[in-house]
Amino acid sequence: MNPTTSSAHCQVQHPPDVQMDDWLFLSHESAGLQLLDESREVVEAEDRGRIKSKLVSVWNSVKYGWTLKQKSKFSKNSPVIILGQSHELKDQEKREAFRCSFVSLLWLTYRRGFPQLEGSSLTSDSGWGCILRTGQMLLAKSLFLHLMPPDWTWYVSHHAVRDDLDPMIIHATDGPENGPSKKGRRLSLDSCLDRSTEALHRRVVSWFADHPGAPFGIHKLVELGKSSGKKAGDWYGPAIAAHILRKAVAASAILPNLVVYVAQDCTIYLDDVKKLCERPPPLSWKSVIILVPVRLGGQELNPSYITCVKRLLSLQCCVGIIGGKPKHSLYFIGFQDDHLLYLDPHYCQPTVDMTKENFPLESFHCKYPRKMPFSRMDPSCTIGFYAKGQKDFETLCTVVHEALSTSAETYLMFIFIEGTSQKDEESSTPMNNITYIQRKTGRRRVGTSNSLEEFVLL
User: Which parts of 264-343 fold into alpha helices (H)?
Assistant: First the structure.
């Protein structure tokens, strides 16, 4: 997927002296006509930019199968794991619970028609912004755990998507008082909905608005990516996305009790996390999102790590994986047997105006679960975890270490170490294509120019 310049248009700029000379020799009538012609040219150029943007959006939708509304097949004989929750599809009630859990995840995709990104003429991220979108989805899941009640789900959406996964058919009981009444059913759903919780849900969605003022919107993430040498239209890798999310949370004043820690060289330094989260008594620890950029193989995924990835996705503290296929980012949220379950950002939708009080939420929740074989997973990825407090973090360290120790045949994906890192987080942001690997046998230099970006090679 090569970066595109959707919705961009170029206008030839003449030197100022040439433009002035032209004006000196124009009469009032001819000047008016030329102004009209130039205005028409600008409008036509903008129209061509919008048409090009729509064509790129349609092409991406066709390319990634969204026009066909493909539905993945799920086996009823195996459980589906989704971010620490296991769902048996044999049981209709549990199948509904799985559908509800999936639909409640925030789905952030390509958008078109938003304000121009600073330093460019781009009004869409179609074709290049997928990894920023998967990063947004992982952050959104963390924010739901941080702010929403435990086991919160988006109930209205759950009842609105009964057209996939062999839906359960609800039969009305006999009798006139229980006859089908769609209006009455909707009212009962609304009456059961916690309005304050739904308002908070809507507020979290607004933080990801495609607008320069949104703390976690595409404009803010692109701005923060400049310090890593990235600009709008560039390809962003999983490790750079992790550091951009860290900077976005740190720069925002709306989440004073939340921090993001990015592991360095596949190592989580416990004292660094403690230093980041601790506050003087009587204040409690800050909540923390742990992001671990890793590379699980060379050009392809090392099959030895599949079991470990499954175990990590089975943990309740796991908030998903920023990963995908080569040059095709996906947000991995679970698995069934030998297939990963994911949310796909490659569906370009119109920008939603979130300044309206009740802006539509339907386009931010996906109703089509998708799967892909583990063998197609790109080895470059960033794994995310969330801990609400100090005890949760201690539990996280224990259960994650146990999950990582599933195989003695391979190096651990990453490790926990007492102590602090010898380099600060700012300097650890990936900038070049050389990685050093520290092992018992010493340090050796590894070139990673053929990779999506630089990682410690496992």
Answer: 270-277, 306-313
Q: What is the dihedral of CA 240, 245, 246, 252, to 10 degrees?
A: 150
- Identity of the residue numbered 394: E
| 442-447 vs 434-439, strand pairing mode | antiparallel
Contact 342, 331 (CB under 8 A): yes
Q: Do residues 268 and 416 lie in contact, with contact meaning Cβ atoms separated by under 8 Å?
A: yes
What are the residue numbers of the active site?
130, 344, 346
Kindly tell me the burial class for residue 58, based on how many C-beta atoms sit within 10 Å of its own C-beta (0-12, 13-18, 19 or more).
middle
- Does residue 125 carry a pLDDT above 60? yes
Place of tokens 């340090």: 443
Residue whose structure tokens are 């129209």: 47
Distance CA 107, CA 101 (A): 12
Interval 388-409: pLDDT, tens = 999 999 999 999 999 998 765 6
Query: What SS3 state is found at 432?
Result: coil
Token pair recorded at residue 331: 């947000």
pLDDT, tens digit (0-9, with 9 covering 90-100), for 405-439:
876 566 889 999 999 987 655 555 554 333 333 33
* Structure letter (DSSP) for residue 89: T
**Residue 448 carries which side chain, given as an amino acid letter?**
T
